[in-house]
Design brief:
mainly alpha, Four Helix Bundle (Hemerythrin (Met), subunit A), two-stranded antiparallel sheet, 2 strands
Length: 168
């Protein structure tokens, strides 16, 4: 059975995807300053998943320049929308190799970064990842409103399958 926090991560990702539904590649790269463009947000969330669940957890680097392009503290940019979604899908699939197997005892372990054990354990990183998504879902929704998008999805969506999975 999947850990409940991993179930929440999967639900949160589905809400993230739902937030962007109907966005054209052109609008995905429009930047209503001072906000970041939507493509940057997609790449930014992919970057966090890549660092936590692909690089640190698995020792793999499938997107070598992503941190430089859309990582924390990097200057605003307008990366191609379709490319960022492609990377996001590749990275989340790779991340799932690790997160989908997490057990309760794994959440207390810590990754090693630059020769030192990280302060946050895997459980805190998982929560940080989930909350980071929700922060940027709100920003993306606001950006879409600023771009004039109508009939945006209501949040939070259908939780029936998530609640059912948590009850098992």
């Amino acid at each position: 059975m999947m850990h409940p926090l991993v179930t929440q991560l999967h639900f949160t990702r589905s809400e993230f995807v739902r937030c962007f539904k109907g966005t054209s590649p052109e609008d995905g790269c429009r930047r209503p300053e001072p906000m970041n463009c939507l493509s940057w947000i997609v790449g930014h969330l992919a970057c966090q998943e890549h660092i936590f669940w692909v690089q640190l957890a698995q020792g793999r680097n499938i997107a070598p320049d992503l941190q430089e392009r859309v990582g924390f503290g990097r200057p605003s940019s307008t990366p191609p929308y379709d490319e960022m979604w492609s990377l996001w899908h590749d990275i989340t699939r790779a991340a799932d190799v690790y997160v989908d197997k997490l057990k309760p005892e794994d959440l207390k372990t810590r990754f090693v970064w630059e020769g030192k054990r990280m302060e946050d354990d895997v459980g805190k990183l998982l929560l940080r990842n989930i909350y980071h998504y929700w922060f940027h879902i709100g920003k993306a929704h606001s950006t879409r409103q600023m771009l004039g998008h109508m009939d945006l999805p209501a949040f939070v969506g259908n939780m029936t399958t998530v609640m059912w999975a948590l009850e098992e």
